[in-house]
């Protein structure tokens, strides 16, 4: 909540000194020109591709499951590009936390902001439905300069890192609030008050909160919370996605019109609709999606594990 963004003297305890030093060096690096940060991210991504064996295996398996029609060479190319994209995302995180707003704003091209603005003018709560692309952090920072977006947030165990992360995410709009992921009541209260809340329904949270519907023709445990939040929060669902443009040209953000007839006839139909949308936005930029997540970890009863 808001007090997480406040400095506390306990942060100066000696056990945090090394972290402060690392963050200080990172802050200095982040001041470099954008094209240099992209190159550094490229190198970091290649190093992760070389040494992060478990993460590479998970991403490779996901690509095999979702794109069986691709050749092995195509999947290897996208896999390597995906790690490069993840390496760049590390520096984009620092940019979103510490670059001045004017410098960041120069990188954004946005389409569809009027859909968010129209909902705000009508006092309508919005579930800003997104996906876990590697550009997630900087996308939130860029949009936060133009519109108040409350984000779902998981507190970090390290108090200093949590403070820096929380402060960095809220600084682009002083009215924005980072809502802890388990704090459903606060999320619903914000939606009913006509606010926009960022939410990504594309990860595996197990049997309890999910139904099985296809994602790239693979049965995937898909959370039903989007439907419930929309109904209980009296909110509309507005999909959004962002893309890192080639050759250092910045970022393209697309905000789509609010979905009609959502929630629909059943949560299964809603989840299928969500997954079909996810397929579209992922296929448009597969190298920038977060493939290292075990998306198909939970299996229907009697089905073998996929990882």
Automatic annotation (TrEMBL):
Compartments, as annotated in UniProt: Cell inner membrane
Top-level enzyme category: transferase
Catalytic activity: an alpha-Kdo-(2->4)-alpha-Kdo-(2->6)-lipid IVA + a fatty acyl-[ACP] = an alpha-Kdo-(2->4)-alpha-Kdo-(2->6)-(acyl)-lipid IVA + holo-[ACP]
A Pfam family assignment: Lip_A_acyltrans
Coiled coil: none
Keyword annotations of the record: Acyltransferase, Cell inner membrane, Cell membrane, Lipopolysaccharide biosynthesis, Membrane, Transferase, Transmembrane, Transmembrane helix
Keyword Nucleotide-binding in record: no
Membrane topology: Single-pass membrane protein
Transmembrane annotation, as ranges: 12-30
Pathway in which this enzyme or protein is active: Glycolipid biosynthesis; KDO(2)-lipid A biosynthesis; KDO(2)-lipid A from CMP-3-deoxy-D-manno-octulosonate and lipid IV(A): step 3/4; Bacterial outer membrane biogenesis; lipopolysaccharide biosynthesis
GO MF annotations, alphabetized: acyltransferase activity
Chain location of the short sequence motif HXXXXD motif per the record: 132-137
EC number: 2.3.1.241
Family designation: Belongs to the LpxL/LpxM/LpxP family.
Function: Catalyzes the transfer of an acyl chain from an acyl-[acyl-carrier-protein] (ACP) to a Kdo(2)-lipid IV(A) to form a Kdo(2)-(acyl)-lipid IV(A).
Family annotation (NCBIfam families): lipid_A_htrB (TIGR02207), PRK05646.1 (NF004191)
The name this protein goes by in its record: Lipid A biosynthesis acyltransferase
Organism: Thiopseudomonas acetoxidans
Taxonomy of the source species: Bacteria, Pseudomonadati, Pseudomonadota, Gammaproteobacteria, Pseudomonadales
Gene name for this UniProt entry: lpxL
């Amino acid at each position: 909540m808001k007090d997480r963004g406040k400095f506390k003297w306990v942060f100066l305890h000696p056990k945090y000194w090394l972290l402060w030093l690392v963050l200080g060096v990172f802050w200095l690096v982040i001041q470099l020109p954008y094209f240099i940060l992209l190159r550094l991210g490229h190198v970091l991504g290649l190093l992760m591709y070389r040494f992060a064996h478990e993460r590479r295996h998970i991403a490779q398996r996901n690509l095999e499951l979702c794109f069986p029609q691709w050749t092995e060479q195509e999947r290897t190319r996208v896999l390597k590009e995906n790690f490069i994209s993840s390496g760049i995302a590390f520096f984009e995180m620092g940019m979103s936390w510490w670059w001045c707003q004017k410098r960041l704003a120069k990188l954004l091209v946005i389409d569809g902001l009027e859909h968010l603005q129209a909902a705000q003018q009508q006092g309508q709560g919005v579930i800003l439905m997104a996906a876990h692309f590697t550009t997630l952090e900087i996308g939130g920072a860029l949009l936060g300069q133009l519109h108040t977006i409350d984000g779902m947030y998981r507190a970090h165990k390290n108090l200093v890192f949590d403070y820096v992360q929380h402060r960095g995410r809220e600084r682009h709009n002083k009215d924005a609030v980072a809502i802890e992921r388990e704090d459903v009541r606060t999320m619903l209260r914000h939606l009913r008050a006509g606010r926009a809340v960022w939410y990504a329904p594309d990860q595996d949270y197990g049997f309890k909160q999910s139904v099985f519907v296809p994602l790239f023709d693979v049965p995937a445990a898909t959370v039903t919370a989007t439907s419930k939040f929309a109904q209980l929060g009296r909110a509309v669902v507005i999909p959004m996605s962002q893309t890192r443009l080639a050759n250092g040209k910045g970022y393209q953000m697309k905000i789509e019109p609010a979905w009609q007839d959502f929630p629909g006839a059943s949560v299964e139909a809603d989840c299928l609709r969500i997954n079909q949308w996810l397929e579209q936005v992922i296929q448009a930029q597969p190298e920038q999606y977060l493939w290292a997540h075990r998306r198909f970890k939970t299996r229907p009863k009697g089905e073998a594990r996929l990882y």
